[in-house]
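User: Thanks for the earlier help. One more: Threonine/serine dehydratase. Can you show the sequence and predicted structure together?

Assistant: Of course, both are below.
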Amino acid sequence: MTYPTPDDIAAAAALIAGRVRHTPILQVEGKALGLPHPVTLKLEHTQVTGSFKVRGAFNTMLSKGVPEAGVVAASGGNHGAAVAYAATELGHRSVIFVPKAIAKEEKLRRMRMFGGEVILTEGAVEDCMAAYAAHAARTGALSVHPYDTFPTLAGQGTVAREIEAQMGGLDTILVSTGGGGLIGGVAAWFRDRVKVVSVETEGTNTLERSLREGPDISVQATGIAASSLGGPRLGVMSYEVIREHVDAAIVLPDAAVFEAARRLWEGTRLVGEPGSAVAVAALTSGAYVPEPGERVCVLLCGGNAEPDWFVA
């Protein structure tokens, strides 16, 4: 299975231009986060709908075309909000299947606010994926996969293209990982020019386990990041690009994520969702220690959470 090239990602950027935000970067002095070195934050949590997911959603719909039946997706929240928003903007109906076990009220509210019809499902995330696939087969609606299709990866890769243009020089990027769509797109853009580091929690370590045990493993997501990073298995296309171009996989406890979110708020007055704080935690926990002079970017991937989620 062939994953997107940098040319494919550049084409996706042109296709979705004007429909997504060119989100800013923020250069942060190390002491703001309790670090001995500066870091650059990519504020993708300020993206339309509050996450990077809208990039892949628009690229999928605009490149494939949407039938009269509209679109359907399965999501813990961010992907569903993105699909609902993109569908509404393009004049289509959207149906979003959400696993009840990991549904967060704030994310459900935003999916509905953007025009999505939300259907809660019982059982595990894989049961939700099966329900959404059955709906697509039954109705003919366009299936917008959260992470394992060519247009999704190409769309998500546009954020890496932006970062490189904004920073000029970059050595390492830290990326929170769920099903692999974001880090797959990032790795597809950078290839071997930049060190790409995956960061997960102990309850959502799909990528780390897949690299260690093989791509067919399935993870039942638990913990603080389950709704945003809870992909049950790594995408087939994502696995291919990750295996070739992701340099390291870090796994952290939930406690490290809470501490990272607290430092992010205290030092920058930025609030991200748990999925964003996971990447920050790689630095604040000491799990990733940059070399002297290493230029590091942390991708803050989403902001759809209650603003005080990390307050004890």
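User: Great, one quick takeaway?

Assistant: The first helix runs from residue 6 to 16.
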